[in-house]
Specification:
By secondary structure, the protein is an all-alpha fold. It is built from nine helices and no strands. Helix 5 crosses helix 8. The radius of gyration is 19 Å and the shape is elongated. Belongs to the DedA family.
Length: 215
């Protein structure tokens, strides 16, 4: 049985089909592995994987509690990998990269570090519930060497809330689980637009300042 063969789904084969096969073959651990990969490779859509895991639970492939726990464990595993990637980059490498980027200053990194020092715990917790940021929030946590116990607890709690909501939605919607993808997709598009607007504003403001400085 192919869980993705439902009306309205965008992808029925390829990588997502392979992930579906994991769930069908090994149940909960397959869902956890799929979510871990989603954390490391954001193009893999969590809005498909999580409600799909809920639908699989409604069909008896795994228990509902197992779907939630395994996907949360997968989120945690992926986040830890990204945390250590950020730790490997560290402040010195991050500053060196920033110094080579056009329109970016090392002082921007300093301000980001100061912001993370004040709001890092909230950022890690809430970031786990925001598309795109779900994965990337682990990188600055690693760069700033947030204490691992705090990082694990905040990541687990934030992931648990997000995963539970989407897994439950898929469980309750049954064969209409794919509806979740469309609604979460709207949320993700809003986030993308907000990020693009912020980047455009940053670039425009920086160019104006540079021109004024030259004048």
């Amino acid at each position: 049985m192919n869980f993705l063969a439902q009306p309205g789904t965008a992808q029925t084969d390829g990588l997502v089909g392979w992930i579906t096969g994991l769930m069908e073959t090994i149940g909960g651990p397959g869902a956890g592995l799929a979510v871990a990969l989603e954390n490391l490779f954001p193009p893999i859509p969590s809005e498909v994987i999580l409600p799909l895991a809920g639908f699989a639970a409604s069909r008896g492939t795994m228990s509902l509690l197992g779907a939630i726990l395994w996907t949360t464990l997968g989120s945690l595993a992926g986040a830890v990998v990204l945390y250590y990637l950020g730790a490997w980059l560290g402040r010195d490498r991050t500053r060196a990269i920033a110094a080579k980027l056009p329109l970016v200053k090392v002082s921007d990194v300093d301000r980001t570090e100061a912001w993370f020092a004040r709001h890092g715990t909230k950022a890690v917790f809430l970031g786990r519930m925001v598309p795109i940021f779900r994965s990337f929030i682990s990188l600055p946590a690693g760069v700033e060497r947030m204490p691992m116990p705090a990082f694990l607890v905040l990541t687990a709690l934030g992931s648990l809330i997000w995963n539970t909501a989407l897994v439950l939605a898929g469980y309750l919607l049954g064969q209409s689980w794919w509806i979740v993808e469309s609604y979460v997709g709207i949320f993700q598009k809003v986030v993308v637009v907000a990020v693009v607007v912020a980047v455009v504003w940053f670039v425009a403001a920086r160019v104006v300042r540079m021109r004024k400085a030259r004048a």
